[in-house]
Amino acid sequence: MTTEKKKYSVESKVLYQPESTALCTILNDGLKKNFQHVVVAEVDCPDLTESPWCLAAKGICGSPKLLDVGGVPNLIPTPRKEKIYRFDELAEMAGNQDAYFLGAGAAGFHILGGNAEMMANLRLGKEECIETYVASVNKEGECDLKKFPEKEFGLLGNFLASEGLQGKVIKICAKTRIGEDNFIQSIRNVSKEAFPNNMIGLGGVFMIKSGKARLHVMPCFSESPLITDEDVENWLKFYEMSSPLICLSVFYNYDEGMDLRIDHTHCFSHHGEGGHYHHDTTPSAVEYEGYFVVAEELLRVDRPKQTHSVGRD
Asked: Which among 20, 105, 14 has a CA at the least distance from the CA of 292?
């Protein structure tokens, strides 16, 4: 199913790119406040098409850009169902029709016939490959995870767009959580402290290799407006899910007034579980392994004219 091509507003911002060795040292030292064991290093990106990652491109390198599309105000308090987006249009905005996209968003409800979380994982162009998953809530109240071979989504999305190449990436390994922050919050907070006046953004993939995590899955659209964070919390369906979980993530150290989703991570698995990542629930047993790139540019696409802070977690 396709929709008529639309043109959306696009705001662009060049992001700060710290020197890789210095950033690795900063993260390696800073993350030890939240994890007992930490190793951060610049490495050659592994082949991410291989198991257990099963991504749609070998790597996440090559002109990396972050795209913040639509936003939570398109979902809350009531869904704006006219907000349908196409990845080929986003690729055009990013300047690469063969772009590889990974990240988190709301699924194409107009195709699925219902609301769902989306784990975007697709390459466009000559080497087209779509390995996107969606997670919904079935009639029994359980998570239903399945492949979604489409190039459209709705309402909101946060993505890393790249050439899908192998190259130098930042590898972050952390295990045994001793602080309160989740994995991505830990990286964000260290980056914010180190670069308080320079906005940086990262995107990539990480795995929860051991332990369990709290994830949510959006059920059917709410029949009544969601006005407060408590309304949103009561509407969402929360689950404790088991590792290994492959997590697609986009985040910033802070927002310079562009009304961003400051971090957004969705996970899928090969055992039927997936959704929106909140935090691990087994700190003594958890282990993370991730590969990230520092983005060159941010594209803020179709920023909602009316905004709010509800439902941003």
From this structure: 20
The answer to whether residues 235 and 77 touch, using CB atoms and an 8 Å cutoff, is: no
Residue 313 is classified by DSSP as: -
Per residue in 235-246, pLDDT tens? 999 999 999 999
DSSP state of 255: -
H helices of the chain, in order, are 20-30, 87-94, 109-112, 183-194, 229-235
In the DSSP assignment, the letter for residue 91 is H
Q: What is the pLDDT of residues 146-165, one digit of tens each?
A: 999 999 999 999 999 999 99
The strand pair at 275-280 and 263-268 is best described as: antiparallel
In this structure, the strands spanning 297-301 and 65-70 are parallel
Give the residue ranges of DSSP H helices in 202-293: 229-235
Distance CA 144, CA 105 (A): 16
How many C-beta atoms surround the C-beta of residue 54 within 10 A?
Answer: 14
**C-alpha–C-alpha distance, residues 125 and 106, integer Å:** 23
The answer to pTM > 0.90 is yes
Secondary structure element (H or E) that encloses residue 106, with its range: strand 100-106
Q: Which two tokens stand for residue 18?
A: 């710290």
3-state secondary structure of 272: coil
Is 301 in contact with 258 (CB distance < 8 Å)? no
Type of residue numbered 105: G
